[in-house]
Amino acid sequence: MSETPVKQQSTAAFYGQAVASFGVALGATAVGIFNLQTDAWVRAFLGIAVLYLVTSAFTLAKVIRDRQEAGQIVNRVDQARLEKMLADYDPLQKL
């Protein structure tokens, strides 16, 4: 009666596209900052800001994923408890 949820797995092409997209975006930003006609300290500040933004984005994605996975585990445990209670319940049993 219980249905095991199908785990969504990314394809290799999707993973490759995501990595390539990230690399292109980071590279384009780095080239843009490097070619700015401004002082070196402004370029350095923008470079550090981009690195901070990237690390914050990775951290946020990990926190969201961990929260979602924790919710799925709790839901599976609750579902298993409910199925066990229903399987053990006998309406014809005398009290």
TrEMBL record:
Pfam families hit by this protein: YiaAB
Alphabetical UniProt keywords: Membrane, Transmembrane, Transmembrane helix
Segments crossing the lipid bilayer: 12-34, 40-61
Signal peptide: none
Name the record gives this protein: YiaA/YiaB family inner membrane protein
Keyword Nucleotide-binding on entry: no
Location of the YiaAB two helix domain: 14-66
